[in-house]
Amino acid sequence: RLVGSEMCIETGIASSIGGKFGEVDGKSSLVNRLKSTDSLARKIDQDAENDHAGDRAKAAAAISDSIRYTINVDDNNYTEGVEKTIKALEQTGFKVESVKNFWQAGDPYDGTNIKVSREGTKVELQVHTPSSHRIKEVDLHDDYENYRSNKNNTERRALWDGMVDKAKAISRPANMGKLLTLG
Q1: Of 54, 92, 174, 179, which has the most beta carbons under 10 Å away?
Q2: Residue 59 Cα distances to 45, 49, 54, 113, 169, angstroms
Q3: Which ranges constitute the DSSP H helices of the chain?
Q4: pLDDT value at position 14?
């Protein structure tokens, strides 16, 4: 089941929307599409405590990004690329569970996250511009890891504000008004 789902995304959807699998500093999002065991364990523990009254089995069942793809679409075609991605996923048998648009002002993460499922397999597809993907992976990654693990609210606020400042370098895709209506 999983192989069919992956092949659909890997060989069909990215090319049909004019996108490319994200790559930053030689790290391919296609090769690194599976969440590491350590990251998965950390997420299960954190989600169990925060959202599932300590029940790790429920937390594990709720994870939707253990398989995650990143597709980059150029700024001029980004909005259309997001629309085409949603349609292509639906047309190939995926159930679109949610579309989260993070392009609003004041958020350091700029991209669109689409959570889908098919035959019990959950997949997250992140759609970025080349610039939003690079800034997320290179400029924001360490700050985000510190933000996520830090317990001091003052320090967390400073980290958040710093990430928002760094994200200002991300150019806005064409047709931004329409983009903000998606998700």
Answers
A1: 179
A2: 8, 9, 8, 20, 35
A3: 2-7, 14-16, 37-51, 56-62, 78-91, 130-134, 141-149, 153-167, 176-179
A4: 77
Rounded to whole angstroms, how far apart are CA atoms 136 and 132? Answer: 6
pTM exceeds 0.70: yes
Quick one: pLDDT at residue 8? 55
Q: Summarize pLDDT for 23-66 with one digit per residue, the tens.
A: 777 777 776 777 778 888 888 888 888 888 988 888 888 887 77
Q: Which of 169, 15, 12, 173 is nearest to 80 (CA)?
A: 173
Q: Do 52 and 62 form a contact (C-beta atoms < 8 A)?
A: yes
Query: 28 has which bridge partners?
Result: 23
Q: Is 171 helix (H, G, I), strand (E, B) or coil?
A: coil
What does the pLDDT look like over 152-177, one tens digit per residue?
999 999 999 999 999 999 999 999 99
Give Cβ neighbours of residue 156 (< 8 Å, ≥ 6 apart): 147, 150
Supply φ then ψ for residue 134, to 5 degrees.
Answer: -65, -45
Contact in structure between 129 and 112 (CB atoms under 8 Å): no
